[in-house]
Amino acid sequence: MPGGKDGRSPKPQHQADLLGRLDAELGRIEEQLRALAAAKERIQDLLDAVVAITREVELPAVLRRIVTTAMELVGAHYGALGVLDESDDHFGQFVAAGLSEQEHAALAELGFPRGLGVLGYAIRHPEPLRVDDISAHPATAGFPPGHLCPRSLLGVAINVRGKIYGGLYLSERRDGRPFDVHDENIVVALASAAGIAIDNVRLFEQVRAGSEQFQRLLLPTLPDLPFDAAAIYRPAAEPNRLGGDWYDAILLPDGAVAIVIGDVVGHDLQAAAAMASTRNMLRALLFERCTPPSACLAQLDRTLESITDNPVTTTSLARVEPAGPAWRLRWSTAGHIPPLLISPGGRAEFLFAEPGLPLNVNSRQPRPDHTRPLPPGATVVFFTDGLIEHPAHPVDESLDELAVLATAHAALPLRDFVQTLADQHPSDGHDDMAILALRTPR
Using CA atoms, how far apart are residues 150 and 170, in angstroms rounded to an integer? Predict the structure, then answer.
């Protein structure tokens, strides 16, 4: 008979003890596996959160994303981020999330916290702050009457380039439990990534602002003309705001006015530099060879081809000439969108004509001229494709939308008119845009 060393079967109690220890060990292993799975999920959530934060390119969006992401990671009911002002002694900005409309209204009426009390303590001490009862903390200053009174708090300072930028605060876990060490660790990790994201977007905004200023410095101020004229330039909404769109208006020696609208292919420093060189060359040619526009464009094309490697460029060059009591428009186009003419009666018409080839394609091809009389009170709009391009809409549909928009606001003063076109454009805003409009005297 099988049995132990003495031939006897193991005792039932011994078997039960073995099974009990085995069950306990299996339970411990199962608990460790659950903890590992939870840790893995938290790490994945943290990585996803960092990616989401770094995708934002506007500082207000980054700050709000940091708050809402931290709330999601630890299941907090409320969240806020206080940004220190330049003096570093109180908050200059406070981004709160999770509040109801009534709570938002109450906070707005009372004013956001100034970074004193427990909130100030969290950003003046390097270690994270985790308290179960705010009112019992030694640094508490209490809450103003009518203010939201949360009980628990998890606060972490955010550093940007070694300097305290502000504090990230979370309050009231949705499950009613206090914040634990796991919550603290994941929010500390998020705050570290948040500091990098804030630094990146601030640097990006500095570059973008400098790029936009550089672009505007390349564009002219319209001179005094014998008729009303207004122009506007809008940079692209997307990250690299440099572009190749430009406009120009020049009073020529023979009394005519040269009007130019153009677009160099590309959205970078090279496009902006090519735009500046092309514009300056055309200006010189206009004073040496006043007419016709086609001859100026042909010479410009040959010059660009000979001495530059500029990208492909579309442009329209027009002469607005006195014609008795009225005016006459003479223009030539290098692959550019036709101008929009709005008659004094409010009728809109695109001046479609032979477009010609863009510059830097084939300088040997002929370029035609076109002529159209302009009655008193007529408005002509020259623009780049950034005003109308939309990937979800055909160009014809966008042109129709622009015509409707222009007709509806044609009675506005010209400066307000171009502003309205730039504000309510039918494009998706991914490209920069330039608009130059003129209105003949009545």
Answer: 10
CB atoms near residue 342 (< 10 Å): 22
DSSP 356-391: -PPBTT-TTS----EEEEE-TT-EEEEE-GGGT--T
pLDDT at 1: 45
What does pLDDT average to over the chain? Answer: 83
Average pLDDT (319-330) is 91
| Measured distance CA(141)–CA(153) in Å, rounded | 14
- For the segment 9-30, what is each residue's pLDDT rounded down to a tens digit? 556 777 777 777 776 766 776 6
How many Å apart are CA 304 and CA 105, to the nearest integer?
61
Separation of alpha carbons 382 and 163, rounded Å? 49
139 Cα distance to chain centroid: 40
Tokens 């193991």 appear where?
Answer: 10
* DSSP states along 153-203: EEEEEEEETTEEEEEEEEEEETTSPPP-HHHHHHHHHHHHHHHHHHHHHHH
Distance, CA of 436 to CA of 414 (rounded, Å): 10
Among 327, 332, 328, 299, smallest CA distance to 314 is for: 332
pLDDT in tens, 382-399: 999 999 999 889 999 999
End-to-end CA distance of the chain: 123
Q: For residues 51 and 41, give the distance between their C-alpha atoms in angstroms, rounded to a whole number.
A: 15
Helix (H) or strand (E) holding 96: strand 91-97
With contact defined as beta carbons under 8 Å apart, do 436 and 387 qualify? no
Cβ atoms of 329 and 304 closer than 8 Å: no
Coil, helix or strand for 393? coil
Q: What is the dihedral of CA 398, 404, 409, 410, to 10 degrees?
A: 100
**pLDDT tens per residue across span 129-167:** 888 887 777 767 666 555 566 788 898 998 888 888 988
Closest alpha carbon to 380 in 259, 296, 268, 282: 259
- Percent of the chain exceeding pLDDT 70 equals 82
Q: Report which DSSP code applies to 135.
A: G
